[in-house]
Every structure is written in C-alpha cells, then in structure tokens.
C-alpha cells in the first residue's frame, strides 16, 4: 500500500500521478525568495477576511483571484506551478540530449532518442494507425475464447494494454519479505465505476462522450460509422458489467477486506472457465503457486461473463484496448479524439503542448535514466542534509506525541513506537539506479519505444518473484513533485522534485519550512498510523497490533473527522467524501500537529519575533495554507470527488488547523467566527 501527498486524478496529461518539479536552490527558488519577502507575500492574501471566518481565503484570496486555471490545465496551484517549472527544466535536459550527435550508448543518448522519437510528429503523422494495424488483424483472426484470453495475457506482457483485470507483483501483505502475484479488479476505461453506474446528468454526458470517443477511434481505422457505433455500445455494456462487480473506492481502501490469498488450483475452482495456471504462465509467471486477489467476487463474475459474451464482443473489446492504449502515440487525429473526450471529464480547454506531454512520457517510461541527468544538474546535497535534520526532528516530535496520548494504552503505544522507530526515510533519488539493460530505443519507432519500455518495466517487475524484497526501489521518479508512504516497506519518500518553495527552501526560516515540508514529512509519517496504514506492523505485515479498546477509541475519533469533511461543499450539492479522503485527512491532521511541535523546539519557534508583521506561529500556519492554494475547473472538481482520496486544497488548508489550539491563539479566533470549534469538539488523534 502506497499513499501519496497529492493526486492529479485522471486527465489527458501523460504525467500521471507524478507532479514534476525542480529542486531547491534553483534560480526559481531564489527569485521566489526575493519576490515573496521572507516567503509570505501579503499581496497574495486577502486581509479583508477574518482568519477565523475563512482561513484559506485570508491566506490566499488575492492569489486565487489573480491566477485562473490556464487553458492547458485542469487545476492551477502550487503543485502545478512547480510541476510546470520542473517541466521546463526537463525540457532543457531533453532537448540537449536529443540534439547530441554522440553515437555512444550513453544515458543521455537513450533519453534523447526516446524524446526525439516522440517529437517527430512528421513521421508519426505519416504512419497514421499503421503501427497497430497488425495488432488489430491478429485480434480479428482469433477463433475461440482461449485465443481471447491468450491475447489478453500477451497484451499485458508486451506493453500494448491491460484488458479484463489488473495484475502486478507485490509484497505479500501478511509476509512483507515475500513477493507474490496479485490479481485486481479492472477491465474498465472510465476513471471510476460510478461513471458507468450513475444516471445523473453529468454521468450520462460522460457516457455519451465515451461512446463518441470509441466510435471516433474505430472510424479512424476504417470502420464504417454504423459498425463503429455498434462497437461502442458493445464495449460500453461490457465495461458497465465489469464496473458493476467492482468494489467502490472506499471499500478498496481497506487492506484487510482486499486481501485474499489463494493457491492457484483452489482459485481455479471458483473460476472454471479461467485457467489461472495457464494465464500466469502466459504472463511470464513461471511455476505459479499462489497469489492474492483484491476482489474475488469480480473474478467469479468475470468467469461467467467470458462465456456469456459472444466471441465477436470480446474481439471488439480487445481491439478497443489496443486503440485506447495506443491513441496518444499515433497521428494527430487519434490524439485529438482522445483529447476531445478528456475535455468532457476534465474541462481542460486546450491540449497540453506536445513537448510537455513527451517530457512527461519520458519521465514515466524511463524515469530513472532521465532522473540521473536531472539530479546531476539540479539537486543540491545541502537540501538532503537539511531534510535529514527535519525528518529526525519530526520523528522526535511524533514520539513525544505518541507517549503523551491520553486515549491509548501503554501496550499499544509501545507497538506504535516500535513502528515509528523502524520507519525508513528516502530523500532525493535512489541509491541504486535502474539501468534498463536490454531496452532498445529507436528514433524512428515512437509507439514501439513506448511499448518496449512498458514491456521492460513489466519484465523487471516479474523478475522480483523468488527474490528478497528490494527495499532500495522507488515508486516515484526524482523529478516528481510529491511524496509518499509505503506501508509494507514502512518508509517515507521525498523525491528531489518537492524540495522547492513553497514546500522547502534551504534559505527559508523554520516557520516556512516546518509549515511546508515539515507538514509533508509529518503527513507521510502519519500515514503509518491512519485508518489503513495502522493495520500494518513495524515490519510491513498486515497484522492487528492494537488492543480492542484502543481501536474502538481510534475509530470513534476518525468518525468525527469524517463527519467534519463530509460537511464541506465542493460544488453545488457535491460534498467531500469523508470516508474516501479519511487517510489523507488523518495524514494532514497528524502531520501538521507533529510539524508544529517540532517547530516549537526550534529557536524561532520559541520566539515571538515579528517578520513582516506576522508572528512565528502565524507564519507557520500561513506557510501550510499557501501550499494548498489553487483553482480547479468545475468538471475536474466533480470528477475528483469520485476518484481522489485527497480533499480539495481549500479544505486541506483548514481541516487540520481548526482542530489545533495553537491556530486559534495565533489568529485570535473566537466564538462567533465561522470556523470556530469549541475546545471539546476539536479532534485530537496523533
């Protein structure tokens, strides 16, 4: 289980969950330091608003008013600004690499060739859909269900699609020292199962746009209109059935509910028409013995569906998986059709520039090659040293807080401390880089490069089976503007990309850094003790280490936090989903409390010296709030309510502070203020 600080949600961008950005001490950071006058710029605030009425508006109101969402974006805020700056940094690296005339097989040449192939729009345009023509013909020649299943398996291994279900190699949740294959629900295209199952106006609009999208792509391969429309209806109805057997995102957050371990032979008995031993071998899992399944009901339904659906339907479904996966890498007609559909979901006005999409794709596909060039040019070792110090201070603060809990028994406290003391931090970039041995990259074969990178990454994943768990691996690339906690490795990870203002700057004072990256560090530590992470022990095993009484107390407190966030209105009648966002809200609450306690142990934290008219405590909370400033298109906001486990930034900026006595004192928040909560109603957990 991996939990991250921030999510973009699904969009037309190719940067996926990675929010790319640059590093501390870049010229941008230095310029920002000067521009913001000690890092809190009153020109970005709205001091006409009382902090106790709307702290988010008070801290960020002028910035929000003056920074609408750019046409190429779906959201705009601190994360996206930094990601864009970092994209420019990557662009320089990639353009330089692509322009190099060297014939030596270097990291720079491989990265440059991958990027250059993606930027060669003339060649891509000439090819049209020829790069997938053979795939479509092969699928059309399938003669039986066995052929369908074999194709579905081989698509996964060769980087051309992920039909029917999800598959990965992960640590066994109950034996974190061992890798196991994992089957998961899947087979759908829309971002969430509710996009298929709901019948409100927005959902129906998305469904119709999806069918139009499918029709358009089939027509681009020469299928006549009537048949293309028929294909779209076939695909939608198949995927709707798959969606109906999926667990909800809230249910999927429970690591106990989604852990089911089977011997392959035993699972075969529940799915008689799906031979998992044969499929595993097809997917390159030699001598399959056992695996875990996140939703057995999905697979028993899939078993009935494979035989109940005519062969022609499955062939159309497989063709669609080829089409949708390849379309971003084909000629402009395919790319534009994909964007037209994504606009309906996200509201994005214009397509992201090609160079930016190719930069993100390179980072996604061969990120630890590009990362080596990125780190060499941008990362400053001073950033790592300062981060090491702050992490140790946050761990000390967290230890003090656990020991002082009045609702937890000593027995459970000792287990919590054992987990805290074994938590491992990673900062900046991997100690050991992936080298992508054997991955061929050709400037003339763009789609094949993308597929070969997918194939390489898949094969690399499969190689984990039978080996000791590799605790050096990273789940994000160095340039990513994000951070994460991995429950099974019990680690907190901070890519180089997030070590930048407004999160962090080596020249900033402690109030700024503890309110920014300090809260991020605390957030990731807190994921080890949120409603999901708390079910794993210090070794990363799914095991209950709580007394019943303590767990009941914890659940009662989290229930109140869920109710707090349920009350926040995002758009019209849409509210934050307190259960879906519970883990992230717990991360913010525990993280900000721990960051504040660590800050109060610093010289500045113990002083009352004013800077630009603000006390140290005020600067701490303002620093936290400015991280979450942003604007979001209404279409994206509505979709994120379904799919994003993070609350909107406006509510992240107030959700934790309104439960902290120090915030009330810092801004003189009194009864009658809109955000005021009585001391006895303030939620105190970690």
Quickly count the helices: 27
| Category from helices, strands and their pairing | alpha+beta
Low-confidence stretches: 8-37
Q: How far do the termini sit from each other?
A: 21 Å
Largest β sheet strand count, sense and barrel closure: 4 strands, mixed
Spatially, the strands of the biggest sheet line up as 1-8-9-7
The amount of helix comes to 40-55%
Instruction: Specify the overall morphology.
Output: globular
Number of strands: 12
Share of β-strand residues? 5-15%
Nearest-angstrom radius of gyration? 25 Å
On the 0 to 100 scale, the average pLDDT is 93
Quick structural overview:
The chain is 53% helix and 8% strand.
Give an account of the 3D structure:
By secondary structure, the chain is α+β, with helices and mostly antiparallel strands. Helix content is 53%, strand content 8%. The protein is built from 27 helices and twelve strands. A four-stranded mixed beta sheet has the order 1-8-9-7, covered by helices on one side. The longest helix has 25 residues, at 354-378. Mean pLDDT is 93; it is low at 8-37.
How are the elements arranged and paired?
Layout: E1 2-4, H1 27-36, H2 55-66, E2 75-77, H3 78-99, H4 107-119, H5 121-127, H6 130-140, H7 145-157, E3 166-172, E4 175-184, H8 194-197, H9 201-220, H10 225-244, H11 249-252, E5 260-263, H12 264-270, H13 276-282, E6 290-293, H14 296-308, H15 311-326, H16 332-346, H17 354-378, H18 381-404, H19 410-421, E7 424-428, H20 446-462, E8 484-486, E9 491-495, H21 510-527, H22 548-566, E10 569-571, E11 574-575, H23 582-599, H24 616-627, E12 630-632, H25 634-643, H26 649-655, H27 661-666
Parallel strand pairs: 4-6, 7-9
Antiparallel strand pairs: 1-8, 2-12, 3-4, 5-6, 8-9, 10-11
Helix pairs in contact: 3-4, 3-17, 4-17, 6-15, 7-15, 9-10, 9-16, 10-15, 18-19, 18-21, 18-23, 21-23, 21-24, 24-26
């Amino acid at each position: 289980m991996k939990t991250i600080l921030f999510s973009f949600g699904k969009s037309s961008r190719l940067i996926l969950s990675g929010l790319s950005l640059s590093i501390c001490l870049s010229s941008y950071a230095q310029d920002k330091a000067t521009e913001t006058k000690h890092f809190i710029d009153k020109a970005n605030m709205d001091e006409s608003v009382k902090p106790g009425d709307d702290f988010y508006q008070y801290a960020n109101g002028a910035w929000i008013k003056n920074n609408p969402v750019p046409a190429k974006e779906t959201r705009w805020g601190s994360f996206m600004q930094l990601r864009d700056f970092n994209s420019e940094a990557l662009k320089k690296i990639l353009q330089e690499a692509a322009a190099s005339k060297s014939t030596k097989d270097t990291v720079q040449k491989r990265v440059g060739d991958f990027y250059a192939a993606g930027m060669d729009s003339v060649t891509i345009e000439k090819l049209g859909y020829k790069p997938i023509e053979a795939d479509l013909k092969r699928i059309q020649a399938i003669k039986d269900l066995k052929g369908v299943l074999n194709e579905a398996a081989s698509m996964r291994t060769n980087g051309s699609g992920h039909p029917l279900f999800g598959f990965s190699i992960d640590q066994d949740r109950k034996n974190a020292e061992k890798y196991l294959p994992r089957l998961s629900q899947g087979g759908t295209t829309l971002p969430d199962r509710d996009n298929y199952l709901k019948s409100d106006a927005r959902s129906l609009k998305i469904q119709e746009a999806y069918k139009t999208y499918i029709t358009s792509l089939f027509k681009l391969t020469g299928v006549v209109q009537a048949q293309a429309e028929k294909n779209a209806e076939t695909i939608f109805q198949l995927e709707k059935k798959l969606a109906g057997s999926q667990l909800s995102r809230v249910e999927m957050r429970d690591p106990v509910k989604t852990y089911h371990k089977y011997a392959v032979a035993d699972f075969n008995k529940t799915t008689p028409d799906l031979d998992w031993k044969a499929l595993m071998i097809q997917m390159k899992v030699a001598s399959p013995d056992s695996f875990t399944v996140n939703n057995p009901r999905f697979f028993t339904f899939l078993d009935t569906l494979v035989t109940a659906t005519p062969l022609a339907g499955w062939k159309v479904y497989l063709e669609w998986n080829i089409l949708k996966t390849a379309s971003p890498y084909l000629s402009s007609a395919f790319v534009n059709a994909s964007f037209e559909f994504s606009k309906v979901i996200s509201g994005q006005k214009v397509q992201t520039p090609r160079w930016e999409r190719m930069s993100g794709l390179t980072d996604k596909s061969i990120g630890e090659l590009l990362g080596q060039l990125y780190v060499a040019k941008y990362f400053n070792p001073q950033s790592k040293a300062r981060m090491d110090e702050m992490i140790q201070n946050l761990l000390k603060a967290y230890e003090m807080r656990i020991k002082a809990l009045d609702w937890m028994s000593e027995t459970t406290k000792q287990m919590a401390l054992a987990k805290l003391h074994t938590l491992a931090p990673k900062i900046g970039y991997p100690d050991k880089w992936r080298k992508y041995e054997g991955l061929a990259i050709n400037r003339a074969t763009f789609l094949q490069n993308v597929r070969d990178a997918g194939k390489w990454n898949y094969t690399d994943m499969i190689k984990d089976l039978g080996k000791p768990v590799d605790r050096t691996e990273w789940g994000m690339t160095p340039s990513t503007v994000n951070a994460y906690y991995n429950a099974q490795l019990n680690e907190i990870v901070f890519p180089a990309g997030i070590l930048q203002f407004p999160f962090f700057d080596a020249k900033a004072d402690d109030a700024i850094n503890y309110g920014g990256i300090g809260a991020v560090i605390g957030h990731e530590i807190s994921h080890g003790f949120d409603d999901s992470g708390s079910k794993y022990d210090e070794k990363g095993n799914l095991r209950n280490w709580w007394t019943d009484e303590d767990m009941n107390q914890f659940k009662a407190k989290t229930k109140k936090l869920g109710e707090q966030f349920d009350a926040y209105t995002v758009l019209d009648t849409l509210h934050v989903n307190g259960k879906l966002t519970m883990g992230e809200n717990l991360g913010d609450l525990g993280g900000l409390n721990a960051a504040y306690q660590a800050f109060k142990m610093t010289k500045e934290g113990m002083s009352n010296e004013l800077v630009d008219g603000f006390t140290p405590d005020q600067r701490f909370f303002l620093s936290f709030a400015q991280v979450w400033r942003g604007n979001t298109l209404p279409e994206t906001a509505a979709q994120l309510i379904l799919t994003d486990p993070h609350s909107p930034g406006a509510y992240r900026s107030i959700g934790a502070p309104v439960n902290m006595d120090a915030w009330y004192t810092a801004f003189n928040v009194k009864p009658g203020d809109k955000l005021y909560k009585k001391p006895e109603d303030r939620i105190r957990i970690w």
